[in-house]
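Progress against Task 2.4 (sequence-to-structure conversion) is shown through the following example record, which the project officer requested during the mid-term review.
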Amino acid sequence: MTPPSGIEADPAPPTASAPAVDRRNLVFDTLGREICAGVIGPQTTFTTESIESRFQVSRSVVREALRALEAQGLITPKRRVGMRVLPLTDWNVYDLQVIRWRLAGPSRVAQLRSLTELRGAIEPAAARMAAMRAPLNQASDLVGLAGRLWAAGREGDAAKFLELDKEFHSLILTMSGNEMFAQLHHLVAEVLTGRTQYDLMPQFPAPEALQMHVDIATAIQTGNAEKAAASMVAIMDRTLVEMSSIWEQEAPIVD
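Structure tokens generated for the chain above:
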């Protein structure tokens, strides 16, 4: 059977002997990536039968995969037609899998921009609250992290720097004392990982950026809320400037 318009033939359908969960994940991941990349565009419709034929899997496997995509807001049932692909405005854009699919596709820069702008709105507030609320032991841990982050940056150890940077920003979100901010640490980790993975981070971070991390940690440790927030704003502003030179070179992408 020929796949419906907008759906490409799968290059490597799973074997019948593959575990059902593997077959389900293949269907889920392939369709998710294609929808997020625009290969399967908004308003495209397809049937369960067409997906069965494409991937050579059972109806139960297809239904499980489609239910997962529906839960992410990527598709919705359409009566007497099958499934309809939804536009970006309906997606669960905070879902980590959706973020990863977008980072892996042509919307990479747009996704990084959205995440960076979100960080700019949230992290200065988190740093201010951390300075007012954080226990002394956590503040001391943050100062130690800032020192290790500085050393990794000066040494050009990109992998170590990334892990420490994720830990640093995650700890600040936790130290804010706001459980909703704390839950955003995965999003921050994704944008930091994305910048490194797609070569958007210098091997040797600027000394000014390293010093800003130290300034934040020191301000939080000493309870200086305004200094903590201002230093985080400085980091976010610097990041936006660095990133803007990248996304200005990219052609606009319509999701």
